């Protein structure tokens, strides 16, 4: 069953290619949705996929790209938006 997660990643996650790396990982996993920076320095992700795909994405979010320093990852299940691709929002 396809699910929708809202994910917030905090720490040193802006200016370290986190959004681009998330895009690459989501495409690798076959996940749809988007990633964007928040004004408070966090990264916000909405992702849709099956339970396994989403768990792999959340697991990856705890690590992130090479220069990231992730302090915390939170996620919650939300209503489906039926995304057709994964993209970076400005």
List low-pLDDT spans: none
Distance between the termini: 30 Å
Strand count, sense and barrel status of the largest sheet are: 5 strands, mixed
Structural classification: alpha+beta
CATH first level:
Alpha Beta
> Helical content, roughly?
25-40%
Q: How many domains would you count in the coordinates?
A: 1
- Number of helical regions: 2
Fraction in beta strands: 35-45%
Q: What global shape is seen?
A: globular
Give Rg in angstroms.
Answer: 12 Å
Sequence of secondary-structure elements: EHEEHEE
* CATH architecture heading: 2-Layer Sandwich
In round numbers, the mean pLDDT is 98
Strand order of the largest sheet: 4-1-3-2-5
Q: What name does the CATH topology carry?
A: Alpha-Beta Plaits
Q: In a nutshell, what does this entry contain?
A:
The protein is of the alpha+beta class. 26% of the residues lie in helices and 42% in strands. The chain has two helices and five strands.
Characterization of this structure:
- By secondary structure, the chain is an alpha+beta fold.
- It has one domain (about 1-80): Alpha-Beta Plaits (2-Layer Sandwich).
- It is built from two helices and five strands; from the N terminus they run E-H-E-E-H-E-E.
- The protein has helices at about 20-30, 50-60; strands at about 1-10, 30-35, 45-50, 70-80, 85-90.
- Strands 4-1-3-2-5 form a five-stranded mixed sheet.
- Strand 2 (about 30-35) and strand 3 (about 45-50) form a beta hairpin.
- Helix 1 runs antiparallel to helix 2.
- InterPro entries: Acylphosphatase, Acylphosphatase-like_dom, Acylphosphatase-like_dom_sf, Acylphosphatase_CS.
């Amino acid at each position: 069953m396809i699910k929708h997660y809202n994910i917030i990643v905090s720490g040193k996650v802006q200016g370290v290619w986190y959004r681009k790396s998330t895009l690459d990982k989501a495409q690798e996993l076959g996940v749809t949705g988007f990633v964007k920076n928040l004004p408070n320095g966090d990264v916000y992700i909405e992702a849709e996929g099956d339970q396994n795909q989403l768990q792999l994405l959340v697991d990856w979010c705890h690590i992130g790209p090479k220069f990231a320093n992730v302090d915390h990852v939170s996620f919650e299940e939300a209503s489906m938006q039926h995304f057709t691709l994964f993209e970076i929002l400005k």
